[in-house]
Amino acid sequence: MVSTLHIKNIGIISELTIDFSKGFNILTGETGAGKSLIIDALGIIAGGRFSKEMIRKGENHSFVEVSIYLPNSDKAIDGNIIISREIFENGRNTCKINGRLVTVTELKEFMANVINIHGQNDNQNLLNKENHIKYLDKFLGKEFINLKKRYTEKYNKYIELNRELKENYGDEKEKRRKLDLLYYQLNEIEDAGLKRNEDEELEEERKLIINSEKISKNLSEADMQINENALNSISIAIRNLEKIEDINIKYQKTLNSLKSNYYDLQEISIDLSHYNSDTHFDEEERNSVENRLDEINNLKRKYGNSIEEILDYKNEISKEIEKIESSDERNNQIQKEIDIIKTEMAEIANDMHHSRVKKSKVLSEKINAELSDLEMQNAKFEVKIEEVDFNKDGIDDVEFMIATNRGEDQKPLIKIASGGEMSRIMLAIKTVLSDVDEVPILIFDEIDTGISGQAGNAVGEKLKMISKKHQVIIVTHLASITAKGDSNFYIYKEVKNEKTATKIKKLNEKELIEEIARISGGIVSDISLRHAQELRKAI
Question: Does the pTM exceed 0.70?
Fold first, then answer.
């Protein structure tokens, strides 16, 4: 149960601490005093959404902390768990469970098994058809849950095998289509006869061909300058140095160096002459080179950025073709496993179906009885079950149907317009499921909206009954419900220094009688006080 709730800087709440008790906790008070903000704070600590607009004006953060007594939880210390959540204007969240930082998702997952919050907007959970099978299965109890767990294990394996079969080309059409594509790609690459670095060599060859005239002209000029000028000049210089080489060793060294340069230039001249003789422009050769480069670039666009990558891709294709062509044996084995597991699933799913059909009648009868107590005697609730293909829940499609007036056809819950009727239907379901519902804390925000008179009294009776096995926290405007509280809290506003703040007071018996009188009559009078006392005695 929620032992203590501490709220700071949410809406008009500056700072508030509430010590709840077990059983039936009721919040009443002025309109706009902050009752729903308290429920919002519990929603925030349960991992719900938070808007920065909820931060109190002038503050930069909001803070909610709750102490929950859960003696059977592995997270509890001496039976207690301290949970906090701090939210800043920039959207940063800090969530902690017993001082350990957790994510909002982790907080939400943990609190989903601790607190169930129901308000007028939360009727959407009941209207959502996908949740109906969950309500029914919860009613069926632990034995059914264990049966469903066995089915889920089989179903997950079934999905996994089908996924493997699909990825292993178990579908013959898909297999043939894929092989055709791979063989086309493989043949296209093989027919090209690519060689590593071939594109680089072709680019170099293309560059030489398109610049052949320029190359030939400059090679000829360079060769002529070497032969007619440089070699002739160096030859004269050599002859001059030979005449004085005996005079000094330094002249001899220079002569030797000059001779070496002469021979080098001769070699260069020979190379230039060979280069020039190899240089020619051939239009046909140029076209051949460019066509080959176009072919390579086309393959690059399809299969890789380089010849290296294209050839690597070719190897991958060959391996995949081999895998596909040898997949029949494994696919046959997978198909046999699928057939076996489908038989096993069908057996369990049929047992689940029969249990659901049988128990759905009991659930419908119990809910109809509760609806009768809630002043909906003419309503007829029914659980509709239709068989469908295998899914995560078995072979059943479950939907809650109701006719709220005698003579009407039954319709899905989503067709019901009245919020008051939805609240009572939800409460009837909660009452029936209270014995099997393991969530210890149930919170109701203005569940009595659209309800008055005898129906309101009946709602109070049901909530009181639920509070025998769960801690119930509720915001209400009805005196008949307020009178049934185990702990009652009055919420009011106080203005101080031009700022409004929410305050709370736990009511003693005398104060509670006065609050019941105020709610029932608008003003506290002898008549309303006597009426309040009668309501209080009736619990």
Answer: no
